Amino acid sequence: MSERDTFWKRFEDVRAGMLGCAPEWRLVPMSHYADPEEGALWFITAAGTDLAESVAAGPQKAVHAVSSQGGKLYARIEGRLSLSDDREKLDEIWNAVASSWFEEGKRDDDVRLLRLSLDLAEVWTTDGALSFLYEIAKSKVTGAKPDMGDHFTVDFT
């Protein structure tokens, strides 16, 4: 399996991360919707949020930091964040969680769809928490450095 495939496979278990963009670089928790074929992540936010305001004048450099619940993936994902008016994509990713934020549903005037076009991801993969504990214990017995998994970069450009 390629490193890109490994990234997307492990990313399936990740539901949210911390997203921020230039010029403020204030990271906030955001749920994402992955689109591996397009090399993009999608986000639903509201008008007036820092993220929506930051990209109102055009795309900005952005970062999305994630980790899987089981500790099998950690990643720093970089790309260009922009507003999108893709109503088909909004229909595709709209869900009960998103609807709880907007009184008029996906047609609410405050709904903003963001697209993070991916440039690269720095990725760390592990076999999870139990494997981590095993490797630490093994290193104490053998004196060898623990195997903490793989570290690689995926270029999406």
From TrEMBL:
Provide the leader sequence positions.
none
Q: Which domain of life is it from?
A: Bacteria
Any coiled-coil ranges, and where? none
Which InterPro entries does this one have?
A: Split_barrel_FMN-bd, Stress-Dev_Protein, YdaG_split_barrel_FMN-bd
Family annotation (Gene3D superfamilies): Electron Transport, Fmn-binding Protein, Chain A
Q: Which Pfam families match?
A: Pyrid_ox_like
Q: Where is the General stress protein FMN-binding split barrel domain?
A: 4-147
Write down the PANTHER family for this protein, in alphabetical order.
PROTEIN BLI-3
Quote the protein name from its UniProt record.
General stress protein
